[in-house]
Amino acid sequence: NELKVGIDKLSFFVPHYYVDMSDLARARHVDKAKFHIGIGQDEMAVSPVTQDIVTFAASAANQILDEQDKALVDLVIVATESSIDESKASAVIVHGLLGIQPFARSIEMKEACYAATAGIASAVDYVRLHPERKALVIASDLAKYGLNSGGEPTQGAGAVAMLISSNPKILFVNDDALTLTQDVYDFWRPTGQTYPSVDGQFSNAVYIESFSRVWDEYAKRTASQFSDFAALAFHTPYTKMGKKALLPKLENETESVKTRLLTQFERAITYNRRIGNLYTGSLYLSLISLLENSETLKAGDKIGLFSYGSGAVAEFYSVELVSGFDQHLKKNEHELLLHQREKLSIRAYEKMFEEKIDLNHNETFSDETPYAISEIKANHRLYRQK
Length: 386
Ligand code: CAA
Known about the structure:
Layout: E1 5-13, E2 17-20, H1 21-27, H2 32-39, E3 43-46, H3 53-62, H4 67-72, E4 73-79, H5 90-98, E5 105-109, H6 115-129, E6 134-143, E7 156-166, E8 171-173, E9 178-181, E10 187-188, E11 197-198, H7 200-222, E12 231-234, H8 239-249, H9 255-267, H10 270-273, H11 282-293, E13 302-309, E14 313-321, H12 331-339, E15 342-343, H13 346-354, E16 363-364, E17 371-377, E18 380-385
Helix pairs in contact: 1-2, 3-5, 7-8, 9-11
This protein binds acetoacetyl-coenzyme A.
Acetoacetyl-coenzyme A binds near residues 37 and 244.
């Protein structure tokens, strides 16, 4: 009777603005079906200059933590590939903004979009050794490729926060991760470079091949088959990506397995279609989307998660739903968050996109959202908590 550890609570946050992909297609002289069908994105989250990975992370975590959690969290991990400092971890600022007990470990983790998966694994190990304590893992990113760039329709912004505990209320994390590391340059961002360098078609190919290799090895080592899974969720740089990797692997499956996994796949991309790429958070946004939008999932169901970070590290592991998991989701809050967003014209998006923080210039800002940058002072960002 091994101790069960996993996700006790989870939520996401996205900034207040978005662009309609039909508007972007028109402005870029592209057929809108390419974005809606070819890429599979309907809306794209856009962040104002007063928000960053710290405010996204604090906003996402604040929705799930109560005072008891804050007294029990020993470990705060922020996974990101859009870091705001080469030295100081964003997790330290997030720890302070959330009011987590002081005797905690706060760190930032990096390996492109994969890092939150490593964060969860570390958090689960910690809680296995200290079952009375908890760990907070947040995936927070601002995905910007540049105006008129090839990656522009696959941008996004926001965070997913997950509280890891023993006897969790939502799901158990199984100890079956299969990980693959390959030194490739499909997507990277050298220190100091504003936007990533990306070899788009190569990145698609590495993702697809990584899923194939990781799944085959996982299946061999754990004697698993697709029919064991109620659903799969994928890292979702754009919603078509996971499907491109999954479809060829389902060729020899029965119609019922194919139908189940492809139907669940649609549930798992419902939110992602309206948000875009959250980088580290994309897989976990997809997991939330699946849990909150599927009508057929039940306690005991096994879900397979495919995590992919360019560069590249890929991993497949499984989780298992806990009885009553559906009572602890935040579907209404999430739908409201998306519904209340403001649509930007392309001109307004382009203006917002170009605004930058200048740390050498003291400045104050007004942004009324729960967490925001209030001031630039003495070369650092000051945050306001409403
Ligand atoms: N109607 C319907 N579909 C259309 C269409 C139309 N009028 N026009 C084109 N399409 C389809 C194409 O057939 C293609 O579909 P398939 O992939 O199924 O063949 C799809 O739309 C995309 O078309 P292109 O490949 O021509 O698009 P592109 O050259 O503009 O590049 C991209 C797409 C490579 C994803 C680019 O947006 C990009 O570089 N994005 C950033 C990198 C990325 O997201 N990579 C994903 C893997 S890496 C990763 O996962 C890590 C991460 O988060 C970055």
